[in-house]
Amino acid sequence: MPHIIDDKEAGRFKVARATFTSQEVFEQERDKIFQNCWLYLGHESELNESGEFVSRTVAGQNLLFVKGRDGVIRALFNVCPHRGATVCREKKGKAKSFQCMYHGWVFKNTGEIAHLSGEQAYADNFKEEGNCNLRHVPRFDSYAGFYFVSFNEDIEPLPDYLAGAKEYLDIVANQSTAGMEIIGGTQEYSIAANWKLLVENSVDGYHAESTHATYLDYLMNTNGSLTATRLAGKGYDLGNGHAVIEYSAPWGRPVAQWIPMWGEDGKKEIDGVYAELVERLGEEKAKQMAGLNRNMIIFPNLVINDIMAITVRTFYPTAPDEMMVNGFALGVKDESDWRREYRLSNFLEFIGPGGFATPDDVEALENCQRGFQSAANVPWNDISKGITAKTPSFDDELQMRAFWREWNRRITESEGE
Question: First CA to last CA across the chain, in angstroms?
């Protein structure tokens, strides 16, 4: 049985529900996708000073994202080369060195061994061979302030991998000359559903009207929270499994779409922000940056939603029917207090795990996962919406088909060898 049916002539695109439940597929994904793609690690704004670090789990592996005393940002395996214990057990902080709690080996924040307990008992050249240092992740690179790692030494360069997604990362990164920053901490939660359901959901313009009806009603009944702008837009295949939907919407955007709720003082400020964008980037790019929303997936598991606020989200499967999710708020560094307050309010109100949207989405995804128990008798998901359209709408499903074609290529390319 194939994983997908991709029949453009007949206008049909189907995905086997077994791909959401199979232990064999889960193990294939771990080897063929998460060991061989560029994966998001962190943002440059999280490491402003030498010694600052963030410990993060990427595809099940503990990593240190750290700015060394030499000012160089590195990605290190957070694993002691001695016996394998996790060296740094703090989530984030600032340190000149890291000490393993098991046998006391100490490492500089550049990864080099600084102190080897009981050194006199080792061979004279033991440290000189480099086997006492924290190991670097094989590939590490950044684009527009976003840092990525890959465990495949031979992977293509990051700019080639990102393909058309670079244009949309630039739109996010250039919203202010002061730069962008991760605001506050991390939203961490689990969902009892397959990780690919969240990929689909994150770029699904089709579900909002029904799944998020409560939130839309809330906005419509909140004085001044909406304009007359109608929902309209397109979906784009960005290559290599990346995709985006880009669309207009009636809600406010700190960069830079005003709504009556923000008052005349707010209008003056937003008008000023927009004028700066026009002067720096030109009318067309400023209009796109300020007036259009974007939901983007960078294959396999980085989501950037630039809507009312900007959300950066990654997620990893821990089992075929369970995933761990990390979410971050991204904002411009020099925005005013009220713009920052609105941005964070929306990040919590709509995107947060206790907000209007995420609980609705979690319920929908877990409901699908329960439905997949009938996969033997009802075996296919349908993702055909808009497949025959010359210009797919933002609420069609082109972006999901782009993901699934790349997923299927990677999973099946070595089958039968």
Answer: 18
Q: Give, to the nearest 10 degrees, the angle between helix 165-173 and helix 283-291.
A: 80
Mean pLDDT by 10 residues, the chain (417 residues): 95 98 97 97 97 97 97 98 96 97 97 94 88 96 98 98 98 95 92 98 90 84 87 96 96 90 92 96 96 97 94 96 96 92 85 84 96 96 96 96 98 72
pTM over 0.85: yes
